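Service request form, structural biology core

Requester: graduate student, group of Dr. S.
Request type: structure prediction, single chain
Budget code: on file
Notes: please return the result as structure tokens.

Sequence provided:
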Amino acid sequence: MIRADWFLERGERGNPATRLDERRPGGTAWSEGNLVQPLVHGATYFAELLAAVRGMRRGDLLLFTDWRGDPDQRLAGAGTEIGPLLCRAARRGVVVKGLLWRSHLDTLQYSETENRHFGEEIARAGGECLLDMRVRPGGSHHQKMVVLRHPGRPERDVAYVGGIDLCHNRRDDAGHRGDPQALPLAAAYGPRPPWHDVQLAVRGPAVGDIEAVFRERWEDPAPLSRSPLLRLRERAHREDTEADELPPQSADPAPCGPHAVQVLRTYPNRLLRGYPFAPDGERSIARGYLKALRRSRALIYVEDQYLWSPRVVAAFAAALRASPGLLLIAVVPAVPEQDGRLTLPMNLIGRIEALDALRRAGGDRVAVYAVENPVGTPVYVHAKVCVIDDVWASVGSDNVNLRSWTHDSELGCAVIDVRRDPREPLDPAGLGDGARPFARELRLELMREHLDARSADGRRDPESDALADPVTAFAAFAKTAATLDAWYASGRSGPRPSGRLRRYVPPELSAAQRAVAIPLHRLFVDPDGRPLRLRRRNTF
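Core staff response, request fulfilled:
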């Protein structure tokens, strides 16, 4: 069975305490019969979420987790702010429950104040939204999910999982003009940063798995924070710190599509008192990648916010060494989101070392690109997508870095289509897998955008079907980036070439920046900004 070759089997998750692998007869560690739709760009996701929440009625269940929530974030135009939308649902009798990360102080450019206000609005409307700081020191709750259940109307059940937070900066579209409700990033992105991201809409039995992930966190009896300072702050703000009981979980929605879905997660081994559903943590995201990468033979396509950490990219490098014909394409941000005097070199050192390791393993079979919008502003790539051999596709909150693979809470879905692609099958080394429509179409949709391979009405260019061939796709990216780079080198002489790809070249670091950043990175802090001592037991 192809799913067992690519997905983790029950014992491979490495976390016997979770209920996820006990939900099906025989302990199958994934669900069959799902219908999964990629929602590329925040505007696409937000429009669907808006319609779905508006259609909920009394007795329905709305569950969500997030890294940051801005209650005034508009999902479309005026009157579609996410906070009031959820409040109106709660007033209609929808059971609304949320978990937001209680972040570090706002002086560290996180989102404690926004998340508290979000929770307060929902509580006043009759819902419940808790600020959750049950993490390791320096860690965060990074999972981004919304689950909508409809007792008596299970055909409407859906779960959204991916990289898109319910907050500012995220509502962008394929034109990449940025979210009108913008937050500042590095200066290169301008006052309204263009933003590229992906979420999945999941229908079918996997909705029950994703709901179970929420319930495990919600039912954790540990205090929301162990910090005496935060406990005092909770009392001062009269925050809700006790999770009310959830209604019983409904039966999983009926099968409705051709997609097998495996829910993958990261949880750290929380100090002193572990999670009851993951006492020693969970590394199924990392383990899922490792298993899939070992089968890669033709093309690894990655879109990632970071692509840091030599320890993490070592698995990609091993795959490149094992398969001489394997190609790797990565799409990353042109510049890290923070460009401070210390944060910029620290971030760049982590990526430079990771890319050096990949190129040592794969040479010119490794190609890394940044993306810009049609007027030349860099696009901040926040997506967390990996497609391997057009068979296994992963979309989630997890980045390719050590933090996402070991330290923060993360949630992703690996998807395998049970059908073969009717076009020329991709079957590297005679493995018998063959390309699958979901993974291939996800990769092609993303590639067509970056190559401008769409007609004037926004539909796909039929000639772009040639990108299904990995070698052709690899060459098309290289040609497009080289042509655009040459246009800039010529002083922008003549019309701007089509395509949005630039060859990724890390910003130059001065000798002084390197002198500070490299020793600090190697001696005290890993590329993800955590003290090295916190790596204890953080293995895959």
